């Protein structure tokens, strides 16, 4: 592995930039790719200098980016999961032109998130972006044979070996809502979201299962309404009983709007149950253990849009035996020695030939990244703004991503 953090450019594919749009990438690239619309993957998109080429992204991301950055509209090129882009790349650095084919795969991280599979005559590269695999992802992955993988290693840390599935998490959140709303007609739910963008599936499923619309703030509504699937889910009606209007803010234990209190005949915050879905605080979670925790009337529920450590292992195991090199797209690398061993074992799990060697102090076939110190997990606010991380876990610096 390359010890250098990933900053958007892939050495084997000159003229291509992925998830990075600063001036350095704009000068070096003629073809751009965006995996999803979290801010740490969009650095530089707001630059005034025009993009020197098309920007490929999913149809959902196309809608979001065209609203957020109207100046880029002419650059946007939607790729559906069945599209294959075939193009000739003429790198601006004068290196040899080459034929490139690109397809997208579902990343199941947030609406519209995709992985990119890029093939030339010489290399086959899988760029996962942020991802949490589902059975659908796995069925797509079986169709490709990358020899280089750029991997989301956010939770490549054995302390995050296990997360419940998002279905399990959503079910628990729904149960906590149902029991509270049933107990007293004055009771309200405030959902304290982990991310502004990326919680749509949770909000949508919760609304469907409760059979109620959910109040969102004006800002959230302007965002949610870009998603057709959210049109019957959220509302500006503050008298409903379930609220996401406080967004990711911790400022209060109550919903940000005050109307529901008067509408429902109470000013008493004890009638508000707050539910906090998040992943970061759930170190050491074991399968079968409770993945929720109560603090007064605040419930934490484990909910992750990134793969757990075990899911990362299962994912790379599917890719073997073709993979020769794994590179982290996280700015601080893929973890320590223990995680390196874990990744290598995962890569060799499905083979008896041992084509990828177990690491030793003298050499490591997934060469490049230094594993000599423990990595701290960190997430951007765009992914998860857990206001209650353990003190030893610093936040990822947004600008440093
Ligand atoms: Zn993300
Ligand atoms: Zn509200």
Question: What does the secondary structure layout of this molecule look like, with pairings?
Answer:
Layout (H helix, E strand, L loop, with lengths): L15 E3 L4 H6 L2 E3 L21 E3 L1 H10 L7 E3 L6 E5 L8 E9 L7 E6 L4 E4 L7 H7 L6 E4 L14 H18 L4 E4 L8 H11 L3 E2 L2 H7 L9 E2 L6 E2 L15 H5 L8 E7 L13 E4 L2 E5 L6 H11 L5 E4 L8 H12 L53
Parallel strand pairs: 1-2, 2-3, 3-4, 8-9, 9-17, 10-13, 10-14, 11-12, 11-13, 14-16
Antiparallel strand pairs: 5-6, 6-7, 7-8, 15-16
The protein binds zinc ion (2 copies).
Structure explained in plain terms:
By secondary structure, the chain is an alpha/beta fold. The protein has two domains: 15-160 and 306-347, Ribonuclease Z/Hydroxyacylglutathione hydrolase-like (Metallo-beta-lactamase, Chain A, 4-Layer Sandwich), CATH 3.60.15.10; 166-301, 3-Layer(aba) Sandwich (Rossmann fold), CATH 3.40.50. The protein has nine helices and 17 strands. It has helices spanning 23-28, 59-68, 135-141, 166-183, 200-210, 218-224, 259-263, 309-319, 337-348, and strands at 16-18, 31-33, 55-57, 76-78, 85-89, 98-106, 114-119, 124-127, 148-151, 188-191, 214-215, 234-235, 242-243, 272-278, 292-295, 298-302, 325-328. The strands form three sheets. The chain has a seven-stranded mixed sheet with strand order 12-11-13-10-14-16-15. Strands 5-6-7-8-9-17 form a six-stranded mixed sheet, with helices on one face. Helix 6 links the parallel strand 11 and strand 12. Helix 4 packs across helix 5 and helix 8 crosses helix 9. The protein is globular, with a radius of gyration of 22 Å. It starts with 15 loop residues before the first strand and ends in a 53-residue tail after the last helix. The model is unreliable at 352-378 and 385-401 (pLDDT under 50). The structure holds zinc ion (2 copies). One zinc ion (ZN) binds next to loops.
